[in-house]
Design a protein that fits this description.
Pfam families (chains A, B): FCD, GntR
Number of domains of chain A: 2
InterPro entries (chains A, B): GntR_C, TF_FadR/GntR_C, Tscrpt_reg_HTH_GntR, WH-like_DNA-bd_sf, WH_DNA-bd_sf
Helix content of chain A: over 70%
Number of strands of chain A: 3
Strand content of chain A: under 5%
Organism (chains A, B): Streptomyces diacarni
Oligomer: homodimer
Protein name (chains A, B): GntR family transcriptional regulator
Shape of chain A: globular
CATH class of the largest domain in chain A: Mainly Alpha
Order of helices and strands of chain A: HHEHHEEHHHHHHH
CATH architecture of the largest domain in chain A: Up-down Bundle
GO molecular function (chains A, B): DNA binding; DNA-binding transcription factor activity
Chain lengths: 229, 229
DNA sequence: AAGGAAAGGATTGTTGAACGATTCCGCAAC
DNA sequence: GTTGCGGAATCGTTCAACAATCCTTTCCTT
């Protein structure tokens, strides 16, 4: 048996990722929040949720903490946990970060060809979601596209941060009615960006992306402000 | 009573910042790690530390979670908490993120003048630290300088991320002997960048910064690899 | 002597209960 | 209408206990 095989196994073991109960609970709750089952502003009582999930308060609190640091839950001392409610400023900041990081990811590209697999898959998924009018899924696909952009930087930490940013953005999308309006127009624009990258035109892609993000921010911030007010 | 006054009060309330025991414990531990008292790789036993600090295991675990999320501690299931030990790849990734974010922060600048207060204060602090040969403090000042660069983007989330990145970097600095080597050469370069920004030459500052980060990464990665191997 | 199974101790993971502290809510008094 | 005062509900924190897991040592087999 070669050392090579053993190394692969030990890699797999890490991927196997044994998880604690708290992490699994956090995973369940994260899903509920991201899928929109738990609406922003909703309070998550320890007793109630702990009973429903069959875990103790301590374990549940540990799960809450994980989600708090992902900014999906907000903690108010002696009052409890709430599904985070983004302000318009939060939304603006999320786009500020997106513009900073996503554009930077394109700018630092070296010579083509680029690893466009994730972005390509996201566009494909978006097309079929649109065809079947699954607008929420279209939104997810668009997010994966932009996750793919950041992946081009090849930085695990940047990927992580982007994952968090996009998760937060869902808190906004889920309170908006009419999801189609906010997702459909951007599918062809994603494809434009992808095409530019395929042609090796990274600066062009970056320009497209910058305009894209500004448009999206404006539209979303307007809609969100109206929804809140 | 005007609404204005009420708003200010509610702002103050946030600053009042009541903190839980766990947060205070996390603060103490963070200090120990950042100041170098707890060396990377060191194991933090729940029982032992909890007894020393006079808090229960549960509360301590809550503090551990906070620090885990800042990537200062690493958690291994059923084995415990360890002060994080960065690999050379981690170090490279940290610089990848820095280059991405810091350069992007300079690039997105609008017209001068810029809010250079933080950077200016950092250079001043660095000068006096150098004069008194407090090399560790000089390192801290340099970090504040780069924190200041990111602040130019005006994004709380970017600030947050940068804070985390720099905290992680300390894990590297603290295992390096000869801190002077890694800090002193960069003080004048920070001043150069600051001067360029004062002159309103953001693109020039960005170029300087990019070279700075590449140099620093190379030097630090080399030294770190030697230290580990 | 080398390798591997078994046992034991130590530490973590999770639970349940307890008690003080804080907040929320309704009601009475001014 | 506002202020003050309970009472209920919930959170913050601690403690004790047990199961699960890991680490080390011992012992057995070859």
């Amino acid at each position: 048996m070669t050392d090579n095989v053993l190394e692969e196994l030990s890699d797999d073991r890490r991927l196997l990722g044994r998880t604690s109960t708290a992490e699994r609970v956090a995973g369940i709750l994260r899903g509920r929040i991201i899928e929109g089952g738990f609406r922003p502003g909703m309070r998550l009582a320890e007793e109630e949720i702990g009973r429903a999930l069959g875990v103790s308060r301590n374990t549940l609190r540990e799960a809450f903490r994980l989600l708090t640091h992902e900014r999906l839950l907000a903690h108010e001392l002696n009052r409890g946990m709430f599904v985070r409610k983004l302000t318009v400023e939060d939304l603006e900041d999320l786009y500020r970060v997106r513009r900073l990081v996503e554009c930077a990811a394109l700018r630092q590209l070296a010579a083509p060809p680029y690893a466009l697999h994730t972005m390509d898959a996201a566009v494909t998924a978006g097309l079929s979601a649109r065809a079947e009018e699954r607008w929420r899924d279209l939104g997810t696909a668009n997010m994966h596209f932009h996750q793919g952009i950041v992946e081009l930087a090849g930085s695990p930490r940047a990927d992580d941060m982007m994952r968090g940013v996009l998760a937060e953005l869902r808190l906004v999308f889920h309170v908006m009615e009419n999801p189609r309006r906010f997702h459909e127009p951007y599918l062809p624009r994603n494809r434009e960006i992808l095409d530019a990258l395929r042609d090796g035109d990274a600066p062009g892609a970056e320009r497209l992306l910058a305009v894209y993000l500004d448009d999206s921010r404006r539209q979303l911030a307007d809609g969100y402000a109206r929804q809140l007010g």
